[in-house]
Amino acid sequence: MAFEYAPAPESRSVVDIRPEYGLFIDGAFVAAVDGEPMKTVDPASEEVLAEVAQAGPADVDKAVAAARRAYEKVWGRMPGAERAKYLFRIARIVQERARELAVLESIDNGKPIRESRDVDIPLVAAHFFYYAGWADKLAYAGFGTTPLGVAAQVIPWNFPLLMLAWKIAPALAAGNTVVLKPAETTPLTALVFAEICQQADLPPGVVNIVTGAGDTGRTLVEHAGVDKVAFTGSTEVGRQIARSVAGTSKRVTLELGGKAANIVFDDAALDQAVEGIVNGIFFNQGHVCCAGSRLLVQESVADEVLDRLKRRMATLRVGDPLDKNTDVGAINSAEQLARIRTLAGIGEEEGAERWSAPCVLPERGFWFAPTIFTGVTQAHRIAREEIFGPVLSVLTFRTPAEAIEKANNTPYGLSAGIWTEKGSRILWAAERLRAGVVWANTFNKFDPTSPFGGFKESGYGREGGRQGLEAYLAG
Amino acid sequence: MPAKQKRADRTPDAPVRLAVRKTYKLFVGGKFPRSESGRSYPVQGADGGFLANAALASRKDVRDAVQAARKAFGGWSGATAYNRGQILYRIAEMLEGRRAQFADEVAAGTGEPTAAALSTVDAAIDRWVWYAGWADKYAQVLGNANPVAGPYFNLSSPEPTGVVGIVAPAEPLLALVSVVAPAIVTGNTVVVLASERHPLPAITLAEVLATSDLPGGVVNLLTGSAAETAPWLAGHADVNALDLAGVADAGQAAELERLAAENLKRVVRPAADDWRAEPGLGRLAAFVETKTVWHPRGV
Fold it and tell me: In what residue span(s) does the Aldehyde dehydrogenase domain sit (chain A) (predicted)?
């Protein structure tokens, strides 16, 4: 039975997108020294939203120098209790401007307003609130109280403002200053965050935002004036960064790709498991490094699970990110859409069976229908490579030991899911899964108090929680 | 009796009894193989005199050692903390029983007085005891419950990183113990490139490990030229982490770190370590991964 919904669009009137944006350096918006600006587009309409400066080497120099000055003269020597109050202020302003940030995030990124409004932005505020409280309690955390200095931070486009919060909040709480580069396709909420820093009277230079593409990121990460590199993004770029810091004294944390197994045992509560599978792979269009992109389902319930999953997928509403009824929004960029299409095509070529939810996709913009592949083996590229889109690969297993073996058979190790009603089996499986986050009878849950990060080639270091401070303290 | 006759006929300078020398080999998978390459190198004492031939490990030996370490990982990381602590303590006991032997071996290599060498040995024994005690405590110190804003149980615990490659420091015994113990106490298995200058106490330590109920493959010890073998270890795709404690050359350390980036190994860079000082938790914490498990609360 299909339900008809009237459109329920969130108002765009709360955002005011300027035609062009400069770089945020030393507390002020400034033009880039050289280089062409880049355009950021609304992936749901392909409409150009704004022109944004691209920071070149001279701009990065300026930003790092501003961060260094702020570290040495102001932030590094400020009592933790005072730093805390700035972070609390920022958390409050984020809450006050939450709707504006949510709408802007959905416009620039393409994610459903339901997610930016209920997940991303509340977590941003919570993250600043959490780390604010640590600023004057570092001695209790177990990692020393000495900051590292200037942190170079490069973040991805899938959770633009949330990833900014994950980077900036612990860095500032520990007494570091930062130069952050938002993703090329999603710079706008970071630039509003720069305004928020101004509204909070954060001392100039403590937070610097340099927009740009990969070159800007590389220049920043390799800059001799930074003490710390924090990166979230692809494993390939993570490798390059790990190589580039070799032989330096820079500290590094990397949060990279994943190919998480979501394991459904035969005794699982199947309706809940199906909700978890859907949330695991279709949340945020599957643009989630910890997405449950490999479904491992016990053979005896595989048909039942797939039937229910397809029924559920048929009810997913794909479309306008600003519509409050939308479940799956736009793919973030033409480039990402091309990658998803390529890998899905390879899945078919390699013999897996493709099924997509029946849905009408808008004509303009970047869209991909929620899709599952069955008959997938471990050798298939769609079982090994991160697709970073709404595409689920389904594999089966017979015994719990086989499930663990398959789940761990990947160079990644970011997250995993377990669905079973048996407590001892949950703990047995959780112990054996080589992954940094294990969700049992739930999936894709995040919290500022909960450390997040990977094993193996999913990177190193943790973000969130007490453990998240370690990345920003000298020990 | 013929024997009596022989003794009577001996030349005045011949010893009463010819000593049985030890063949120093590698320690891989709980066994003591020679280098697959068949190579060895002479180890010299502090005075430049010949002490023994040690095995000169090859690339293939590195691979064999990594394979043995990987094979041992499941069992060792799955052992109870109490069990791992017992075994580390047992290593201390076995070492204590051979204090004099180790002191002689250390002194022969370094040329220091026996008293100084004994103090090194004692510190090494005490270090095993110190780490043995951590086996069932570090998870309580490094892990914690997380009060998430929702109806979920949420717990973070440290888990072993996997196979750790170690380039051991040049100094004998204490420095070696100080890099091996923190890696294995948490359930990692290791491949150690022993000090090229002082391989003999390292292999004798392997004899102690082999008789302490430590499962074969948990510690694998290669002697020879770290400059030759370390790149194979650093670039090996089944090694999860790298401790560069013993790499003195900055250029080589950078190159090893670059090789390690290929599969995103965790790397501990060389530092000015004082092996006599209380180690702290840094090295132990460098080779664990925080795993966070969520579960809903409900009825």
Answer: 33-473
CB contact under 8 A, B156 and A450: yes
DSSP code string of B217-230: TSEEEE-S-HHHHH
Q: Are B62 and B232 contacting, i.e. CB atoms less than 8 angstroms apart?
A: yes
Domain A261-440, CATH: 3.40.309.10
**Annotated active-site residue in A255, A386, A463, A470:** A255
The domains found in chain B, sorted by start residue, are: 23-296 (3.40.605.10)
| Interface predicted TM-score (ipTM) over 0.95 | yes
Q: For B266-294, how does the pLDDT look when each residue is reduced to its tens digit (9 = 90+)?
A: 999 999 999 999 999 999 999 999 999 99
pLDDT digits (tens, 9 = 90+) for B195-227: 999 999 999 999 999 999 999 999 999 999 999
CA nearest to A113, candidates A319, A342, A286, A308: A319
- Chain segment A173-201, per-residue pLDDT in tens: 999 999 999 999 999 999 999 999 999 99
From residue B167, alpha-carbon distances to B33, B177, B229, B269 in Å are 20, 12, 10, 11
Contacts of A437 in chain B (CB under 8 A): 291-294
Check whether domain A14-256+455-472 has CATH 3.40.605.10, yes or no: yes
Q: How many CB atoms lie within 10 A of CB A307?
A: 12
Domain with CATH 3.40.309.10 in chain A: 261-440
Q: Does A428 touch chain B (CB under 8 A)?
A: no
- Per-residue pLDDT tens for A12-50? 999 999 999 999 999 999 999 988 999 999 999 999 999
The full DSSP string for B175-217 is HHHHHHHHHHTTT-EEEEE--SS-HHHHHHHHHHHHTTTPPTT
Helix or strand run (H / E) with residue A122? helix A121-134
Q: Give the Cα separation of A385 and A344 in Å (integer).
A: 11
| Residue A350 neighbours by CB under 8 Å, 6+ apart | A380, A381, A382
Residue-wise DSSP of A194-226 = HHHHHHTTPPTTSEEE----HHHHHHHHH-TT-
Comparing CB atoms, the residue among A126, A451, A466 nearest residue B149 is A126
Q: Which residues of chain A have a CB within 8 Å of the CB of B70?
A: none
Per the annotation, the verdict on A255 as an active-site residue is yes
Nearest to A466 among B144, B257, B266 (CB): B144
Contact residues for A155 (Cβ-Cβ < 8 A; gap 6+): A163, A164, A167, A180, A181, A182, A183, A190, A231, A232, A233
Asked if A256's CB is within 8 angstroms of B262's CB, the reply is: no
Region(s) of chain A under CATH 3.40.605.10: 14-256+455-472
